[in-house]
Amino acid sequence: VDIPTGVGAWNMVTEQLLPTNTWGKTFLTVPLKLRTDHIIRFLAKDANTVVTINKMVNNQVQSSQITLQANQFLDQTHSTPLEIVSNKPISVMQFNLGRDAEPTASVGDPFMVLIPPQEQYQSEYLLQAPNLLAFERWGYILFQLQSQGGYGNG
Q: Do 15 and 114 form a contact (C-beta atoms < 8 A)?
């Protein structure tokens, strides 16, 4: 697959989708290292699913909404961290763009990551990484600080 369509650096993109009873209503995403844009896919199971996308623009929260019908998905390109809130359970996926889609990127093939909903977050995590000196490693750790006023106010 080429992501976006017509751009080089192709890979097969395969991911096992989670059962719908594990889908959630609140998600957080962050841009990927060395990438300006990323594609977020919203997948609804139920009709009239309203998805609110919150992002920071010039130190202000900017919100937009989309409405999805049963079994409908929508892809959007974003360049900032997002808070995604829906009125019904959804699945959210993030796609890395192929190398040729990013003028500043020298490496990278497309891939897909399922974004876990906040409802599935655990209170503790143990991270282990092998000591492989031959490879440069990046890890993404996304955490939410205690907030008193909602997105962007904590």
A: yes
Task: Write the DSSP assignment of 26-93 as a string of letters.
Answer: EEEE-PPTT-S-EEEEEEESSTTEEEEEEEEETTEEEEEEEEE-TT-EEEEEE-S-EEEEEEEEEEEE
Each of the 154 residues of the chain gets a pLDDT tens digit; together they read 555 566 665 666 677 888 999 999 999 998 877 777 888 999 999 999 999 999 988 888 999 999 999 999 999 989 889 999 999 999 999 988 776 666 666 666 778 889 999 998 888 877 776 666 555 655 666 555 555 555 544 4
Using CA atoms, how far residue 143 sits from 24, 106, 123, in Å, is 17, 28, 11
List C-alpha distances in Å: 71 to 77, 82, 95, 151: 20, 23, 19, 28
As a whole number of angstroms, the distance between CA 29 and CA 60 comes to 18
58's tokens: 């010039």
**By C-alpha distance, which of 131, 95, 115, 102 is closest to 36?**
102
pTM of the model: 0.76
